[in-house]
Design brief:
disordered C terminus; mainly alpha; elongated; three-stranded antiparallel beta sheet
Length: about 350
């Protein structure tokens, strides 16, 4: 049975900005992008303009708003109270589809999703894919996304919903199974590596990511969470054994060890790295707690006869090497000149 409204129903069309329709005439098909029904046109128009859904009509309006424009609402037909409106809505949607209008409707009209035929789905899917493939559409979506994520309310609301969805045991189990399967795929690894390289090749991307990671890692709640997670994992014998085996395999590979040491040496040998290390060490030594721990560990080491002997041997060996190096350098720097009578 068709739907019946107790009040007057307005069958309306949303048209491209700037559309001009004379009284008693219908908007041209090339101007119409959506056909719907409502009992409160003003309220329905505001809902359209404020919609944040992913329906095609909402995305179209958001793109218009990025350009500072809004759609034009035109009444196609007014139905008196107690009139079945669903057939009339379907009539107007079919009328404009038949006239070649690029409607954003996802159904043929009427109640709910009734009439969502495979042909409609295929037609709308092809239309959406073609529209989203355009460079200007990609640019608009990117601008809209940046605008949304710059809004603290949107950011927090979205982050909360993502956290709620990704912290369930079912989700973690599914993602774990997917990741285990993907890590066996060399093609997936290659795509992941290529994507990361493309992203890091952008101007300023490395610096931006570095700053972001440092800011996130410096948060007290993040530090506490990581510390608690690592403490819990290190209490698991299976995890400790796995980590130990992985480290042993790494250390058994001379090339990997050499590459790691070379990378560390290169990173630590720059003037900036040396300056940061010096400032970090000075800051640590200004901490009374660090000073006390260092003094206690030094005292304990010198009270241990074995450690004291090893330390003394290391100091003596270092002095001997320094003395030998100085002697060698001195011998190489001496130049013997012939005397005048050595002919």
């Amino acid at each position: 049975m068709d739907s019946v409204a107790p009040r007057s129903v307005f069958i309306y069309a949303l048209c491209e900005p700037g559309s001009v329709v004379a009284a008693g005439e219908l908007p041209a098909p090339e101007c119409v992008r959506y056909v719907g029904q409502t009992v409160q046109p003003e309220v329905r128009y505001r809902v359209h303009c404020l919609a944040r859904t992913e329906y095609h009509s909402a995305r179209w309006i958001r793109r218009l708003k990025l350009d500072g424009k809004l759609p034009v609402m035109v009444t196609l037909e007014t139905l008196p109270p107690q009139t079945a409106w669903a057939d009339r809505e379907r009539h107007w949607i079919a009328h404009y589809y038949g006239a070649g209008a690029e409607l954003t409707n996802i159904t043929e009209g009427g109640d709910g999703l009734r009439g969502l035929t495979p042909e409609v789905i295929a037609r709308r899917g092809a239309s959406i894919a073609a529209a989203l493939a355009k460079p200007e559409a990609k640019a608009n979506r990117s601008a809209a996304s940046r605008c949304n994520w710059s809004n603290p309310t949107f950011h927090e609301r979205t982050a909360a919903s993502i956290r709620a969805a990704t912290t369930t045991e079912e989700y973690r189990a599914d993602m774990s199974a997917i990741i285990r399967e993907r890590t066996q795929d060399d093609e997936w690894h290659a795509k992941l590596r290529e994507g990361a390289q493309r992203r890091l090749a952008r101007d300023g991307e490395r610096e931006r990511l570095s700053v972001m990671v440092k800011e996130i890692g410096a948060r007290p709640e993040v530090k506490a969470k990581h510390s608690a997670r690592m403490t819990q994992r290190m209490q698991d014998p299976a995890f400790k054994a796995k980590a130990s085996n992985a480290l042993a395999r790494f250390n058994d590979d001379p090339e990997k060890v050499a590459a790691k040491n070379a990378a560390i040496s290169a990173a630590q040998s720059t003037p900036e790295a040396k300056q940061r290390a010096s400032e970090r060490q000075k800051a640590r030594m200004q901490d009374p707690e660090v000073k006390a721990k260092t003094r206690a560990s030094t005292t304990a080491a010198w009270q241990d006869r074995v450690k004291r002997a090893a330390r003394c041997a290391a100091i003596s060996a270092g002095r001997a090497r320094g003395k030998a190096a100085r002697k060698t350098a001195k011998g190489q720097s001496v130049l013997v000149l012939p005397c005048a009578h050595d002919d």
